[in-house]
Amino acid sequence: MSEDPFAALRQEMVAEIEAEAAFVGEQTGRPAFSEKVMQVVGEVPRHEFVPAELREFAYVNSPLPIGFGKTISQPFIVALMTDLLDLDERDAVLEIGTGLGYQAAILSRLCKKVYSVELLEELAVQARARLARSGCHNVTLHRGNGYHGWSAHAPYDKVIVTAAPDLIPPALIRQLKPGGRMVIPAGIPDLQQLMLVEKSAEGRATTKEILRVRFSQLEPDEPGEPAADRGRLA
After folding, report:
1. Residues 6+ apart with CB under 8 A from 209
2. CATH for 7-233, options being 3.30.1340.30, 3.30.70.100, 3.40.50.1100, 3.40.50.150
3. pLDDT band at 69 (very low <50, low <70, confident <90, very high)
């Protein structure tokens, strides 16, 4: 077996994520992410989920453009949002905003099933191919407007959203199981907060602000032009 030429870069990325987690730990309440999350981040080939011309930058701790005005999220943000979900290997997870599939690939190694919704058909087609090549066979993709979730497979143990509505969509709260958790950016542009939503056994949802962020907007209706920023610190 040939040596992975990106292995060292992945470990450097993991070290940067750990340093950033410690730096903002007072804000997030998570100065260190779980061992299993960091192990998966250190294993998933991020270079398989970026355009070929950007492979050499795949392990920079920064968002990268993936076409159509979209980006793949900053690795630190991916790790933080994944850690906040407190995933269990039995979980069914709804992801809103597939992009080219990197976040879904991370989730697929930590839970039983991932249902992912992508607005743009072009990205959905590419994501399916990239996830299949990476052996992520427990991910099911759907082309649609994630603002409304994916009711066909609800309720979900966990929900993760990679675009920001002004307010948390009621449909996503409804599709979250009692006892479940959702991680979602929300707020008007330039004043977004990463939010943790927890649903009690009785079905009551509570929210907690985690960190200032900047994501593209999640609209109730399909936008004419996709926004540019997705998944980075504000």
Report:
1. 193, 194, 195
2. 3.40.50.150
3. confident
